[in-house]
Amino acid sequence: MTIITDHLARLAPASRGQGRLVAGSTATGAEISIPYIAARGAADGPTLWVTATVHGDEVNGTLAALDFVRNLDLAAMRGACIVIPAANPLAFDARAKTAPQDGLDIDQQFPGAAGGLTTQRVADRLWREIERAGDCLVSLHTLTAHFEAKPYGVYKLHPDGPVAEDVLLRHLSFYDPSVACLMPTVKAAGELPGNISGAIDYQFQALGKAAFMVELGAGSRIEWPYVEQGSAGLRRTAAEIGMFEDRPAPGGMLRKVLKRRHVTADTGGLFRAACTPGDILQPGSPLGVITDIFGDIVDTVTFAEPVLVIAARRDPVVATGDRIGFVATAWESRTLQSA
Ligand SMILES: [Zn+2]
């Protein structure tokens, strides 16, 4: 039995508990620990995991997860819900994406390494709890503070995983996303460099269970509408897997992104966005302009084909190669049927 499953077993039906998973200590002797909240329903049933801030500055997810779990009607709930409000505690405390000890992206490290670097040990400590229990996992993220984006979904399809794409799209529709992005699991142009298979949702899917990511706006600040969108979506996911009676209707039409890419600045200067997330830009229509430090326009950023804007940069200061937008270049509309 793991610490959390043991804790759940000791909880009275329809009650909630909390605790910490210890993954080590700092130089001054403070615990490196991962806080958790475990909520037990009135009857047995499925287990939902919600992890927030594997990237430590993506705080809308933390608030959405807390609002969700603290407002559950446990007397009407079957099964259990486990929330990890700060899945990367050292990064969270540092208000940064990664922990200052090693700079590793923890969402590229799962299932972790018991004898590894600090971040790998934290991943291992959390994963040993997760892999033993759970039917569905939602990994909450945001973009970086530099961007503006509406909430959207990201999912991967594990090559050996039996989880159907429609199951994931149905879940994602509950979060009213601007788009749902199928993320390639092999290296693809236009994506950030990294080890996709080390993502917590990908590893969970490798166990044959549904898992996906929800991006709730931008990092390092509260965006209340997106926090509420996230907590409402989690409630529907819980109902969808059978924790509540009111099985939700899917969100209807969903824009599924087949190809996406970051747009990077070809020249340094000040970027001014000329669009809003969700806009479709026709060829020649600008994402924005870059001026030099004297205010003269030195570049107008346009596309040769229509693009759907997922996110646009709001921090104007850019160097050559900085990300100024995140766009879909191929997408399709999917209508989701009620089950
Ligand atoms: Zn993230």
UniProtKB/TrEMBL annotation:
Which GO terms of the molecular function aspect are on file?
A: hydrolase activity, acting on carbon-nitrogen (but not peptide) bonds, in linear amides; hydrolase activity, acting on ester bonds; metal ion binding
Determine if Zinc is one of this entry's keywords: yes
| Named cofactor requirement(s) | Zn(2+)
Keywords from UniProt, A to Z, are: Hydrolase, Metal-binding, Zinc
Asked whether the keyword Hydrolase is assigned, the reply is yes
Alphabetical list of InterPro entries matching this protein? AstE_AspA_cat, N-alpha-Ac-DABA-like, N-alpha-Ac-DABA_deacetylase
Known SUPFAM superfamilies for this protein?
Answer: Zn-dependent exopeptidases
Which superkingdom does the taxonomy of this entry point to? Bacteria
Domain (Succinylglutamate desuccinylase/Aspartoacylase catalytic): give its ranges.
44-238
Q: Which PANTHER family match?
A: BLL3975 PROTEIN
Please give the name of this protein: Succinylglutamate desuccinylase/Aspartoacylase catalytic domain-containing protein
Organism of this sequence: Tistrella mobilis (strain KA081020-065)
User: Which lineage?
Assistant: Bacteria, Pseudomonadati, Pseudomonadota, Alphaproteobacteria, Geminicoccales
